[in-house]
Specification:
The complex is a heterodimer.
Chain A lengths: L1 H19 L6 H16 L1 H7 L11 E8 L4 E7 L1 H21 L7 H20 L3 H10 L1 H11 L4 H34 L6 H4 L6 H18 L8 H8 L2 H26 L1 H27 L4 H22 L2 H32 L15 H15 L5 H14 L3 H8 L1 H17 L14 H19 L2 H22 L1
Antiparallel strand pairs in A: 1-2
Helix pairs in contact in A: 1-2, 1-5, 2-4, 2-5, 4-5, 4-12, 4-15, 4-20, 4-21, 5-6, 5-7, 5-12, 6-8, 7-8, 8-10, 8-11, 10-12, 10-13, 11-12, 11-14, 12-13, 12-14, 12-15, 12-21, 13-14, 13-18, 13-19, 14-15, 14-17, 15-16, 15-17, 15-20, 15-21, 16-19, 16-20, 17-18, 17-20
Chain B lengths: L2 H6 L1 H19 L3 H25 L2 E2 L5 E2 L1 H25 L8 H18 L3 H19 L6 H32 L4 H10 L5 H18 L8 H7 L2 H25 L6 H23 L4 H21 L6 H29 L15 H4 L1 H15 L5 H15 L3 H25 L14 H19 L2 H13 L1
Antiparallel strand pairs in B: 1-2
The chains are: A mainly alpha, B mainly alpha.
């Protein structure tokens, strides 16, 4: 029941925020904050259960199911395990950050803005919870629509192009997934005579090798477009650059993770054999993404575009880790998801804060900002270093585990991906060098971070340090879920 | 004729009677409100009498017309669509000069034609229904007499419709020459008794498909569509897009199922080409449009293509699933199309038709509810969840995947991607920032009420389609 409440609270909060605009233009953001607080409080209960999941018979510790469209065996079936819990916690945390970074940036039509923000979060949480494939697809599409509005209404100069590109890329690829879902269900129907879209039922569908490969590809393309991996990444730099800061935070921090989550939750367990056959290709895509995006990031002069490319680079690690399919690399992927979510969100918030102050994202127009903005610059340095993977911070743990896990599976590709440890410092430090050091560029008096911004970025910084120094707490939560995924895929492969 | 048959025919007779009543009424006293209300009451009575006819069904009500669940369901759908269009027409025409009283009369006769069409089980009723429908439509399209575009549209439709009728008649003649039967079931018996493909019958069916292709505006028979859609008054466009196309499609499906024409595999190949062309061509041409009515015209070509895919799947899957998916898709398409043209018609004034895309600039901030309804309609056309259009598209995916039509499915996916672009373009224009202008929009209560109702249906069946699916399954199983 709590799972349904988790989604409904955000939806209702969204409507409340929309209608509260009539009261006062400032009301929606307060409504959004209250909604997210309620959501965070609701999460305490599953968190307390997650610690003792070892005693339970399965890694799923919450479940909610009612029939929805019985004609096709579609149920409104939600379930939560450690993996979804971690990602939902990330979603809620970044929800706060998105509201915080939109606090003064969004000046017009705040009601509709926060409505879209909250429904987008609701859709994302739905994606992380759904264990009925139809329902999953439903939420998958549902989170795109509000994000489209966020980009196309409150975005920057080239927003229409970016928003439509984003929508079409994700929609077309997700139709391929819908086709794969439907085909999978029909194959099961032909064998057993009943329709069912339930994840647990479909896990045991016997598939021929050809069918499995095609179906796997349908899912794989949808998820790698969302992830994104080269060559499906071209929508992302545009969408990120044009989105308002709050939108970028959600997009980079949470939405990209839905692609990774889909690979982990659906592609590998549903089609283990096909995925193993395909693993070299997927891992190569991952390694290429890692390197290519890092090189591209270096070539950007637009700060947000640069950060967008670093996201693609980090997501390549996740692809590499997931398709290595061993406990170590999967744990690494999960930690990378969380750590990248936090660091990318923080970097986008800093870029947004700079744009609010300087009205530019071009690094050529920045330079010498440190004396004027000491706190902002220090935080930027911190997160740039986190993003390049300095030991002691979250990203390092994730990347290290991924590389270690992948090493045993494919040494060559792991080696190639490791080269990014040279490239990452270059692109991360070039930002600091160009924007914050160097000759002082003509700027009028700038105001440094205020309390709200210090608080939110400080929180993110603390989380990153915590994730880097004591990742075991997170690993413990996700371990049972990952173990179960691996087990079910091994069983199926026999 | 027994009393049961007479009762079963009550809905059709009610519509015909109402048409006469309106006609006589106009002769006595010209009053637009009166004519509209009589027509509305007639349609509601007819809808009510469907309930009585239901108890007698399934029954062969006359030599020509079969009243079964399939007929009754689609009659209800057509009549409700007609009622909604009548409501939009009332608001659209009430402030216009000229003699508008014949408008409800023509709507009634068109509905009569449509009702006969969905119930027909014989070539004679097939042709008669189609002609009653078409002849009413010529006049409806050209109703604003003193304007150029409606007249142009009406003439185009008249000529092309005449040509398509000729094709139809030729096709019927060929089939009759070979089978000696005009009943669908008789033709079905003939086709089932032969193992090989009879070339005359095949040619006949191809000609019939070509004739119906005109009405459905499938590529390559689509050339009239954009001009007629643009020229006709907005509510009438909604009527053509839904009632006329829907009735024809329903008949086509019934013809194919009851005559067993699915056995003619070459036909399905031809149909696949037509469907693929319609999906890709319709969507591609829609990309170029700046006129909302023309854009919706091309998008309707694509939608008829999607619908044909579900229809083609009938070659290899059970007819139950085909009827189910076609019915659900048509239902969603009816709601969405009437809603979309309803918005156009609400925004139109006697001076200007709201067809240029710039007309919609900033609508989100000036009339948020109207824009929200339009956005939902467009998202439903694009097949995005939360709307009935998504469930419809899901049905088509299911049917086509079951029938292993991978090529056509791929065309649907590409088409949807293209479609999204132009639907989103309208949404983008609506959400553009403009300075709020204090123009008090005209209040159209009836249209607004209908639009609210349609939007609610759209979202309801998008979120919880089970009720509708149950009804449709009943229709599919009984047939």
């Amino acid at each position: 029941m709590i799972l349904l409440v988790l989604i409904c609270v955000l939806l209702l909060g969204g409507f409340a925020a929309w209608f509260s605009e009539r009261r006062s233009p400032e009301a929606p953001r307060w409504v959004a904050i209250v909604t997210l607080n309620v959501e965070a409080l609701l999460l305490i209960l599953p968190c307390s259960v997650a610690g003792h999941v070892d005693g339970l018979s399965s890694a799923w510790f919450a479940d909610f199911s009612v029939p929805w469209i019985p004609r096709f065996g579609i149920g409104f079936h939600l379930a939560m395990d450690g993996l979804s819990l971690l990602l939902i916690m990330l979603t809620v945390l970044l929800g706060f950050m998105a509201v915080s970074s939109s606090w003064t940036e969004i000046k017009s039509r705040q009601g509709f803005f926060f409505f879209n923000l909250l429904t987008c979060l609701a859709g994302t949480i739905g994606v992380f919870l759904a264990v009925d494939l139809f329902l999953f697809f439903f939420f998958w599409e549902l989170m795109i629509v509000p994000m489209y509005f966020l980009i196309s209404i409150w975005g920057h100069e080239n927003r229409t192009y970016a928003a439509i590109k984003f929508f079409i890329f994700t929609q077309v690829s997700s139709l391929l997934m819908l086709l794969a879902i439907v085909a999978l269900v029909l194959i099961r129907h032909n064998k057993s005579g009943t329709y069912s879209f339930d994840y647990f039922e479909l896990l045991n569908t016997p598939l021929g090798p050809d069918a499995a490969l095609w179906l796997m590809l349908g899912f794989f393309i949808a998820f790698t477009v969302k992830l994104p991996a080269v060559p499906f990444h071209t929508w992302l730099p545009d969408a990120h650059t044009q989105a308002p800061t709050g939108g970028s935070v959600i997009l980079a921090g949470v939405m990209l993770k839905t692609g990774a989550y889909g690979l982990l939750r659906f592609v590998m367990p549903l089609f283990p054999e096909a995925a193993h056959q395909f693993a070299p290709v997927a891992m190569a895509m991952g390694a290429i993404s890692v390197l290519y995006a890092a090189v591209m990031a270096f070539a950007q002069s637009d700060l947000k575009r640069l950060i967008a490319y670093t996201s693609v680079s980090h997501m390549g690690f996740i692809l590499l880790g997931v398709f290595s399919w061993n406990p170590l690399s999967l744990q690494g992927s999960v930690v990378t998801m969380l750590a990248h979510g936090i660091s990318a969100a923080a970097l986008f918030m800093i870029a947004g804060a700079l744009q609010e102050r300087l009205h530019t994202r071009e690094m050529g127009n920045m330079g010498g900002l440190w004396p004027g903005l000491p706190v902002l610059s220090a935080l930027a340095l911190f997160f740039a270093i986190a993003s390049l993977g300095l030991p002691g911070l979250g990203n390092f743990v994730g990347e290290f585990l991924v590389l270690q896990g992948a090493f045993g599976v494919n040494m060559l590709l792991t080696f190639v991906a490791t080269l990014v440890l040279i490239l990452a410092p270059i692109y991360a430090l070039i930002v600091i060098q160009k924007a914050f050091y160097g000759p002082h560029y003509q700027h009028s008096l700038l105001s440094d971070f205020n309390c709200r911004e210090r608080l939110s970025l400080g929180l993110l910084a603390l989380t990153t340090v915590w994730l880097g120094l004591s990742p075991q707490a997170v690993l413990n939560v996700s371990a049972p879920a990952l173990k179960q995924e691996i087990q079910s895929s091994v069983e199926k492969e026999r | 004729m027994s009393i049961n048959q007479l009762i079963a025919l009550a809905p059709i007779m009610t519509i015909a009677g109402t048409a006469i009543a309106v006609m006589v009424g106009i002769a006595v006293r010209r009053n637009f409100i009166l004519a509209c209300s009589v027509a509305a009451v007639g349609i509601i009575l007819s809808l009510w009498s469907l309930g009585i006819a239901w108890r007698e069904s399934p029954i062969q009500a006359s030599l020509l017309i079969r009243m079964d669940a399939y007929t009754l369901f689609y009659m209800a759908l057509l009549l409700s669509a007609g009622l909604a269009v009548l409501g939009f027409c009332y608001d659209y025409f009430k402030d216009r000069e000229g003699e508008n009283e014949e408008l409800p009369l023509l709507l009634l006769t068109a509905l009569l034609g449509g009702s006969v069409l969905v119930g027909s089980s014989h070539f004679a009723s097939f042709f008669m229904g189609l002609e009653i429908l078409s002849i009413s439509l010529f006049v409806l399209i050209g109703y604003p007499l003193n304007q150029v575009r409606p007249l142009e549209g009406a003439i185009k439709y008249l000529i092309l419709s005449g040509v398509s009728s000729a094709f139809l008649l030729m096709g019927m003649a060929l089939i009759y020459a070979q089978c000696g039967e005009l009943y669908f079931s008789g033709i079905g018996g003939y086709i089932a008794s032969r193992e090989d493909i009879n070339i005359m019958v095949l040619g006949g069916i191809i000609l019939i498909v070509a004739g119906l292709g005109f009405k459905l505006s499938l590529i390559p028979f689509h050339l009239w569509t954009p001009d007629v859609y643009q020229g006709a008054p907005a509510p009438i466009t909604a009527f053509i897009a839904t009632v006329s196309k829907g009735a024809v499609f329903v008949l086509l499906l019934r013809y194919f199922i009851s005559t067993d024409s699915y056995a003619y595999k070459p036909l399905l190949n031809i149909f696949s080409v037509i469907a693929g062309l319609s999906i890709l061509g319709g969507n591609l041409l829609a990309l170029l449009q700046n006129n909302v009515k023309r854009l919706l015209a091309y998008s309707s070509i694509a939608h008829m293509g999607y619908l044909s895919v579900a229809f083609i799947a009938g070659g290899s899957i059970s007819s139950i699933l085909v009827i189910e998916s076609v019915t659900f898709y048509l239902f969603a398409y009816f709601i969405t199309t009437i809603g979309a043209f309803g918005v156009v018609s609400i925004l139109s004034t006697p001076q200007t038709e709201a067809e240029d895309i710039s007309f919609y600039r900033g609508l989100f901030w000036q009339r948020p509810w109207l824009a929200a309804a339009f956005t939902l309609m467009l998202l439903s056309l694009a097949g995005i969840p939360l709307t009935a259009g998504f469930i419809g598209k899901f049905y088509i995916f299911t049917g086509a995947a079951d029938g292993r039509l991978w090529g056509l499915l791929f065309a649907i996916i590409v088409g949807s991607g293209l479609g999204l672009y132009y639907y989103l373009r309208i949404i983008v224009v609506m959400s553009t920032n403009v300075e709020a202008t204090a123009v008090e929009p005209a209040q159209y209560f009836i249209s607004t009420a209908i639009l609210v109702f349609l939007t609610m249906l759209l979202v309801w069946f998008g979120i919880y389609p089970t009720l509708l699916i149950n009804v449709i399954q009943l229709v599919a199983y009984v047939t």
